[in-house]
Amino acid sequence: MENNIDAVTIYGIDIAKGSPKSKEVPKYSVAVLKDGEITHYTMVHRHKILRMVHKDRPDIIALDNVFELAENKKNLIQFLERLPKKVRLVQVTGGIHPKSLVRLANENNLKLNQFNPNDEAEVCARLAAMGVGSEVSLFENITKIKVSRARSLGRGGWSQNRYHRKVHGAVKEKCRDIDTTLKNFSNEEGYTYDSKITKGYGGYVRCEFTVYARRDEVPVRSGVGGDVQVKVKGVERDKIKYIPLDKHDEQKRKYTIVGIDPGTTVGIAVLSLDAELLYLKSFRGISHDEVVKLVSEYGKPVIIATDVIPTPNSVEKIRRSFKAIEGRPDTRLSSEEKITLSKPYGYSNDHERDALAAALYSYRNYKNVFSKVEKRSPYDVDKDHVKLYVMHGDTIEDAIEKVKTPKKEEESKRELVKKQYVEEEKPDDYQKLVETINRQKSQIKHMQDYIDQLKKDKKKKDKKISSLEFKIDNLMSERNKEIKKEKEIKIRDNKISKLKSELKNKNKSLKKLKSQINKLKQIRKMEIKGEGIPVKIVNSFTKDDISKTKQLYGLKPGDIVYLEDASGGGASTASMLINAGIKAVIVSDDLSHAAFEAFFENNIPILKEVSIQRADDFAIVDPEELESAISRWNEFAKEKYMEEKEKEFVNLVNEYRSERRRGLI
Q1: What total number of domains does the chain contain?
Q2: Is the pLDDT of residue 406 over 60?
Q3: In terms of DSSP bridges, do strands 618-621 and 612-615 run parallel, antiparallel, or are they unpaired?
Q4: Would you say residue 592 lies in a domain?
Q5: In the predicted model, is pLDDT for residue 629 greater than 70?
Q6: Which three-class secondary structure string do you get for 486-547?
Q7: Which of 197, 200, 214, 607 is a good FRET partner for 645, with 20 to 30 A between their CA atoms?
């Protein structure tokens, strides 16, 4: 940019009252530098500044600290999004290594009363006109365009499919219009773009375009029309980037690190020396000359890197074209390492991933050196140029000295502008000097009145704050008492609820026990009267349950035992009851063959279909029914005994006949 203040309009802004972080809306002093003349506006709200900016369309908005306009980065982004196209936000004190506004004013022969917001706003405007400061960049040179439905389709009815086709068709048509616009933009301006489409019934559900250009350069705007909505948004940077005005205006070519994945499909990644991704794409069948031309568009390569070992001839040929440093890893990178390096940036295929990983690996090798250069380099030195010298073997101090030599033409231009500003401030005669003094006296009186008013306002607010704090303390005390009371009531309610639940369970148990006691009494009465014979219950026909019954109630000769579950037991299990000398066994289902034989051989009746009256682990059986069942068993046992004897006799006869046939007898 030429240092010609007549060619641009610059807004200098300084905060006059309040702060973006306070509840009170801040007010600003604005100095408008136009055609070499300064116009002051005092106590202006931010929304009014935006209206002025949209009306005048200044080239630069200059401040000593950009966070006077916004509380944080998010709010600053919102402010920048509301600015007109090509309006730049400049922090005149610099970015990474800021200087004070007083120091910059002294260095550039500008008068400054640091207690006067009007003076500070004017100095900011004049410094920006002289090329002092850094542009605040919060967005990458990437723009996202999202085209989607403007309304939900819902569940619908009979005509839902037709409605789907209508909406998705409208999205598809809008996507094609934007694609045509971007193609023309790409052909005219040389920018590239990618697209990602999600198809739906009858057209597109959504479409996303990624344009590798600044948002204000892309000829597409956000909006809603009919069934389609378009959202255009720049890709935010992870952190604020400060671009010195002298570098920005000279349009110097950036130094870059280029990663190349060679082969039939060539992957190309271009990084700045700050690890900013400038370009990433893959091409099938691209020639050497086309690669060189494409890479040149994004800057001057300092490193040509690849992940292939040794470096292929195609990559070496490109490196020699730029006289760049060779970049390659000592050992072949694994897929996991490539993914880890490239994932934060994103990629579309393996070729782009490999190219990006190669570039990032080379950047990582120089990252610590670059960090030292950033810390040690003075504000007015081209840090990328210093990095270039360091990468070629110079020390940081030697590299700074090489870059630090000023250009005579730039110095002469700067001195000319400074002289112009100084001359503007010199009065031509006594009358002008008197007018200046009177104007300054008026400004001083105005500021003194303003200070007195601020002191009165502060006193009133202090009293109000004190009163409110007292009220808050009282309210908090009462609230704490209420909270404590509510907490105690809640604890008691929980305890009462728990006790009620326990009481309910105990009442149920008591009712059950009473029922059992009544049954036991009834059984005992029947037993005393001779109307029932006690029966001892074994839950299952196992050794453990038999032992448990024996331990709790005892098993003695002549006892009647009821097997609630007769399955599973064998001869050894039956022997425990046999050895106890029981009189009979009552079962509800069949015993195993081994258990049956054991009881039968020991003359213990196995009774079925015998009714018992039971109360928990106690039961009785009717004596007559028991005797009847035993009689039936004895008849069954007698018949079975006779059958076995008959079988035994038949076997003896058969055996005798067999021996006679064989002549043994």
Answers
A1: 4
A2: no
A3: antiparallel
A4: yes
A5: yes
A6: HHHHHHHHHHHHHHHHHHHHHHHHHHHHHHHHHHHHHHHHHHHHCCCEEEEEECCCCHHHHH
A7: 607
**d(Cα 639, Cα 258) in Å, to the nearest integer?**
107
pLDDT tens-digit series, residues 334-384? 888 888 888 888 888 999 999 999 999 999 989 888 888 888 888 777 888
**Quick check: is 58 in a domain?**
yes
Residue whose pair of structure tokens reads 């080239």 in the numeric block: 59
Give me the half-sphere count of Cα atoms (radius 13 Å) on the Cβ side of residue 504: 6
Q: Is 452 part of any domain? A: no
CA distance 506 to 517: 16
How does DSSP classify residue 334? P
Q: Which of 391, 411, 439 is where one domain is finished?
A: 391
Q: Considering only CA atoms, which of 261, 281, 259 is closest in space to residue 362?
A: 259
The tens digit of pLDDT for each residue in 414-424 reads 454 444 444 44
Residues 191 and 263 grouped into a single domain: no
Residue 96: count of CB within 10 angstroms of its CB: 13
Dihedral angle at the C-alpha atoms of 241, 242, 244, 247, nearest 10 degrees? Answer: 0
Last residue of a domain, one of 391, 409, 425: 391
Residue 38, in any domain of the structure: yes
Nearest to 12 by CA among 30, 34, 36: 30
Least confident of 282-286, 309-313, 441-445, 584-588: 441-445
Contact of 276 with 140, CB cutoff 8 Å: yes
Kindly state whether residues 308 and 336 are assigned to the same domain. yes
pTM of the model: 0.39
DSSP letter assigned to residue 321:
H
Assign residue 114 the CATH number of its domain: 3.30.420
